[in-house]
Design a protein that fits this description.
7 helices, 81% helix, 162 residues, globular, mainly alpha
Length: 162
C-alpha cells in the first residue's frame, strides 16, 4: 500500500509529465482563443503571425520551455518564489502561448491547487502569511523538479537564454 507521500509524488510527476507533453498544444489553443476574442485588425494580424510561428517553428517553443524548466528551480532557490514567478510573468507579458507564461501557469495551477487556495500564485503569496509562502515555495520546488526531469528527458535545449 503506497504511503500518502508516494501518492503526492506520483501526482506531481503525472502533472509535470502532462505539462511538458502538452505545452505546445496549449500554446496553440490559447493563441487561437486570443485570436477569436481579438477585435482590432492589427491585433488579429499579430495573433495570426504568432499562430503561424507556433505552427512552423514549434521547436523553438519546446526548446525555450525546456530551457526555462531547467533554470527556474535554481532561480527559485536563489531569488525566492515570488521573484522567480514575477520574472516568468514579466517575460511572458501575459501572452498565454509564451513559454514563460506557460511555465508560470503550470506552476501556479499546481501550487495553488495543493494549497487549496484560489486565484493566481502571485496573488496568493502576496496576501498570505509567511508560512503559506514557505509551503508554496516547497511545493513549487518539488513540482519543478519533476518538470525539470521530464524536460531534460523529452525537450531539446535552447541555444539562447530565456
Amino acid at each position: 500500500m503506497p504511503s500518502h507521500q508516494q501518492t503526492l509524488e506520483q501526482r506531481r510527476a503525472a502533472e509535470a509529465w502532462r505539462c511538458v507533453t502538452v505545452a505546445l498544444d496549449q500554446a496553440k489553443q490559447k493563441a487561437n482563443e486570443a485570436l477569436q476574442k481579438a477585435q482590432k485588425p492589427e491585433e488579429r494580424s499579430r495573433l495570426e503571425q504568432e499562430i503561424r510561428r507556433l505552427n512552423t517553428d514549434s521547436g523553438k517553443l519546446w526548446a525555450s520551455y525546456g530551457s526555462l524548466a531547467r533554470k527556474v528551480p535554481a532561480l527559485v532557490t536563489s531569488a525566492g518564489l515570488g521573484q522567480a514567478m514575477a520574472f516568468l510573468r514579466a517575460k511572458g507579458q501575459s501572452k498565454a502561448w509564451d513559454p514563460h507564461e506557460l511555465l508560470y501557469s503550470h506552476v501556479s495551477d499546481w501550487v495553488v491547487g495543493q494549497l487549496k487556495e484560489t486565484g493566481e500564485l502571485l496573488d496568493v503569496i502576496q496576501h498570505r502569511s509567511s508560512e503559506v509562502y514557505r509551503q508554496a515555495t516547497s511545493e513549487a520546488l518539488a513540482f519543478l523538479l519533476w518538470v525539470k526531469r521530464f524536460a531534460e528527458a523529452r525537450l531539446p535545449e535552447a541555444t539562447e537564454g530565456p
